[in-house]
Amino acid sequence: MSALDLARGQFALTTIFHILWPILTISLSAYLCVVESLWVRTGNIVWYRHARFWSKLLLLNFTVGVVTGIPLEFQFGTNWARFSQYAGQFFGNILGFEGAMAFMLEAGFFGIVMFGWGRVSKGVHLFATTMVALGSSISVFWIMVANSWLQTPAGVSVVDGKLAVTDYVSAIFNPDMPWGVSHMWFAALETGFVVVAGVSAYYMLKRRNSDFFLHSFKLALVLLAIVAPIQIWLGDGSGYDVFATQPAKGAAIEGHWHTNAPGTGADWSLLAWPNQAKQANDWSLEVPGMLSMLATHSPHGQVKGLTDFAVADQPPMLPLLYYAFRVMAGVGFLLMGLAFWTSYAVYKSRRQPDALLAQRKLLLAWVLAIPLPYIAVECGWIVREVGRQPWVVYGLMRTKDAVSNVPASSVSASIVMFAMFFVVLAASFFIFARKWLKQGPDLTLVPPADPKRADPNSTAIGY
Amino acid sequence: MNNAVTESLLMHAWFGLLGLMLILYVITDGFDLGVGILSLFRPRESETDRNMMIESIGQVWGANETWLVALGGALFGAFPAAYAMLLSNLYGTVMLLIASLIMRGAAIEFRHAAGPKYKLLWDRVFGLGSLLAAIAQGIVLGKLLTGLQAGTLSLGFVFITVIGVVSGYALLGATWLVRKTAGWLQRTARMYSIIALCATVGCAIVVTIGTRVISPVGSARWTDPGVFHVLIFLGVIAAAVSCYVVYSIAKGGDYGPFNGSRVLFLTSFIGLAVSLFPDLVPGHLTVAAAASDSSTLVFMLLGIGMVLPIMITYNVYQYQSFSGKVISAEH
Lengths: 463, 331
Hints:
A: two-stranded antiparallel ribbon; two-stranded antiparallel ribbon; B: mainly alpha; Cytochrome d ubiquinol oxidase subunit II (chain B); membrane (chain B); transmembrane helix (chain B); transmembrane (chain B); electron transfer activity (chain B)
């Protein structure tokens, strides 16, 4: 394997593993905000106990997210030095914003969220939780600004072989940015709400503290019923934007080879096997005229086919792109259906909560749904990043020109190291999460007096 | 004001801001890493000691480490060429740093979740991660000062900077423990402080001589008019502060040793900044050559420069929320 392939492999490995964690941090901290607000507003102790219970999962998850995020901050310099030099004036700037505005907010208040009960008032605690949620969402914003700019670079010009920023407003608000930011943020929210609903369903299925978990189940469901349809709408908008701004990517994810003639609609393949060597699909199941509707929202809209692009400018790994896109979209619809159906079931059983507990298959479906949003997020990122190839900065810099001049052996060694760390981190997380699941919520927890300052000169230890 | 003046003002402002972030990182995460290094010296049966030590940094280490992330991002944006050159040239060292920070960060949280059988294992991972992070940062310092030179002499120099950073962090960690703990552990921390101080001062002297002899910094920058006087002035302050730390430890002060150690680091890093300037990577890359265009530097100044005071404010608030001595974890 070449140093380029290895560097790409390392980037894929570290980002695919890392993104699993922040999406739950973003949504679970937002969920905790809602829970703590309910606690502050209603004074119902159930919400306090929920806050304490879910925050333990947040801590485990946050830990893995933080440590797996470290490589991402530095690997642009280690593995993609030429890209860093070429695009650093905008891209590095934005990563700097993320570090200063988002991480510090998260890290600065996380200690108070985890260890501050009883040391600060519940109002201040809610504020700290809100700041962690806000910090993680600001992080989504800047990271997606940086990434969307790679997809649709704007506001820059080449000066002395480097990209200089000529217009910050158009660079930040580049064409892909509104879709990139919102689609990712909603993906994160959906993930956390599915996790909360799934874990709550698990306890209800086991008939353990069912009343307690009915609260979190219903709350997550309400939030999902709002978020899931919006996410589908955002997905449709992102697709429309991709066909307009990155036509080769659009054609690749739909296995679309030939531009439709004027006055006709492009056919949409529901399923197919794209074959790059043949520059055609091996087989496909087509819906006539449908792709023009999906891609351009008009019956005869022109959709460029892949054969309009030189093979060197086409994205690689077409079947991966094609099916990753379908899995992502499929999960989106599946989760929306499940959320609506379950909301209806909850509504029907509103006078007898036990009726919901009797719907064991429905509860089991939620437990089994836990991995789905994670799979969808990974597939979405594959579509986004592999679909942008062969470019690192779309239309401006090719990935092969971006890589550092570092020996392949060094890159291989670091890949092995990361793989080993990730196995240990994932295994440890699952062991501890299982313990957390087995232990369950502490229904005897009483909120500390507000604020407790028995001895101002000592740090009480609370775990 | 003409463009050249604005440009030069901006890049120097960013050189200063990066220096500020670096010193904030080194002092705050320095004591975290120092506590980790010292935890390796607490034997298997001293679990209570380790609990107290780790508890003393439990709520703040994450925010402290974040200064490094902010520094990395700011360097990437303000001086992309330096970010690219340093990180790709120090590939192995950076990977070691990343690995060590993963070990430290995961272990400090997972030790709480782990069963009693595995606590010692996680504690050792935490200590080892802290030690390796200090070593990696020592290598970066040594490589930077020698202008990325290869060769046996440079290797020896890097070896000394590594020992210097490890013992310097141990000094910060030990004096932090003097401040945060009481009783037996505090007395032990005082002893650690003295040992670490001696090692740090020793390394600092050797590194200074070494820099003069083998580094482009010593042969070029230090001979610029006025520079050596500044360095001598800083050296006098450092010597006085070192004496104060010893005095304060002997007197049984709680806060003095840590405050003194912080000033010691501050003078060392001002010395480093004075020595590097106007280069970022001595002999390879000047501040001016590495800097982004003015448009980027202004925009970053608006974004990061404005939030920096806010960042510092809530950091201080966080420290205040967890001020005072750590009391026993057993309950």
